[in-house]
Q: What sequence folds into this?
């Protein structure tokens, strides 16, 4: 999984190897941020630890495409195919992640968990993939969560997801713990599968992984919980979310560069650790890797929402908008009003989406200059601006948290039909 992709990144000349000693407190995160979290880096010498740390592996769209062996124009259809036609996994009796199994004297502080920002409450596990089983169906659910390190065998979890929250609250009412595993050291198919909505599609995410990778995901049984984990993962923490236990979590430097608020959150008791020989610790600067993958899946949802209404060419959920707040869509305009229809469809398709720009199919929606040209020359605020006040938004937007609602805006930057004044200048044979 991870080791294979690190080798692929190295072969492509994309992996930066840092051999100078770095400190997990601020310095490691500072280097990732210096490269705008878009350059895959492995830190081979981490102060106080014998374990290398890698980060920013899956933060660039083109790099992710190469690792997943997909083309940009086929991404949406490949993701939908994997959701519609999941494939079975392969259970192994043994895998490399089982080379070391620790069930006594648990101490997760031996791993190099980074401390990212000045006011962060603790060091955090930011790339940890949470694995649980649906308590009603047994289907496997995966999602990246943030985990605050509380001690040698305890971490807190920011659940956030309504689906996972409901699962935990349902079992907590019975005063029972929820069994979990946290995986570090995974690859692109595992990451992409984790971002598919279990609530929306009701699918086993391990089986989506198998469909995406084109072969069965190989898994092994955990030692202390009834869960399976990838056989080639680097590190797995096994434990339970304790019922009726909460501890303070935060503040923590979040996605958009602001601190998340301190609150009381559930606690995980770690019961076992499995790891490979000479493990590689996987981290993510908060939290680009998860959100690029999440943005790609949001593009799937946005595309199919618009497809029902207009002739959509492509969609782009942007990096600068945190892969959730801003989107651009290009359409093949057939009638006046298509731009407004697309705005309504886009803003209703994703709750977090705050601003959307609709352009014609001659605009490259992945080129900011081209999009700005469309806004500058095809948009008139008095007739092409759509504002929806006091709608549901995202708690990751500080301006939303002030009132609990957010204003949403759509910009119709499509040109009028059959108007030669908007013909783009071209140079023959270029």
A:
């Amino acid at each position: 999984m991870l080791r294979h992709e690190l080798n692929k990144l190295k072969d492509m000349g994309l992996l930066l190897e840092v051999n100078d000693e770095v400190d997990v407190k601020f310095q490691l995160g500072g280097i990732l941020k210096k490269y705008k979290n878009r350059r895959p880096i492995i830190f081979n010498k981490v102060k106080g630890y014998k374990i290398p740390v890698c980060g920013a592996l899956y933060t660039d769209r083109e790099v992710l495409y190469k690792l997943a062996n997909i083309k940009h124009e086929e991404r949406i259809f490949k993701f939908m195919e994997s959701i519609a036609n999941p494939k079975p996994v392969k259970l192994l009796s043994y895998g490399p992640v089982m080379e070391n199994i620790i069930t006594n004297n648990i101490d997760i502080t031996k791993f190099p968990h980074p401390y990212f920002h000045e006011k962060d409450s603790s060091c955090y596990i930011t790339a940890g993939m949470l694995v649980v089983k649906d308590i009603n169906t047994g289907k496997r659910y995966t999602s990246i969560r943030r985990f605050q390190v509380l001690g040698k065998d305890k971490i807190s979890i920011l659940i956030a997801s309504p689906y996972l929250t409901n699962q935990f609250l349902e079992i907590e009412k019975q005063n029972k713990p929820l069994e979990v595993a946290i995986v570090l050291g995974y690859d692109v198919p595992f990451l992409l599968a984790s971002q598919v909505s279990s609530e929306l599609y009701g699918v086993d995410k391990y089986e989506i992984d198998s469909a995406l990778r084109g072969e069965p995901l190989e898994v092994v049984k955990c030692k202390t919980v009834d869960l399976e984990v990838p056989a080639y993962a680097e590190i797995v923490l096994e434990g339970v979310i304790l019922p009726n236990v909460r501890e303070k979590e935060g503040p923590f430097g979040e996605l958009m560069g602001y601190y998340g608020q301190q609150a009381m959150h559930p606690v995980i008791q770690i019961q076992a650790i499995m790891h490979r020989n000479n493990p590689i610790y996987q981290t993510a600067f908060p939290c680009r890797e998860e959100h690029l993958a999440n943005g790609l899946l949001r593009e799937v949802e946005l595309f199919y929402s618009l497809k029902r209404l207009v002739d959509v060419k492509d969609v782009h959920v942007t990096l600068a908008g945190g892969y959730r707040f801003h989107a651009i869509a290009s359409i093949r305009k057939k009638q006046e009003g298509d731009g407004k229809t697309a705005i309504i469809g886009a803003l209703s398709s994703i709750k977090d989406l705050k601003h959307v720009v609709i352009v014609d199919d001659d605009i490259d929606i992945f080129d900011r200059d081209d999009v700005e040209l469309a806004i500058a020359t095809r948009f008139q605020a008095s007739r092409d601006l759509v504002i929806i006040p006091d709608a549901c938004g995202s708690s990751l937007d500080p301006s939303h948290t002030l009132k609990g609602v957010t204003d949403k805006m759509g910009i119709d930057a499509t040109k009028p039909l059959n108007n030669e004044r908007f013909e783009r200048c071209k140079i023959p044979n270029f």
Notes: The chain has two domains: 2-289, 308-416. Residues 288-307 form the longest helix (20 residues). The two ends are 42 Å apart (CA to CA). Residues 316 and 338 are 18 Å apart (CA to CA).
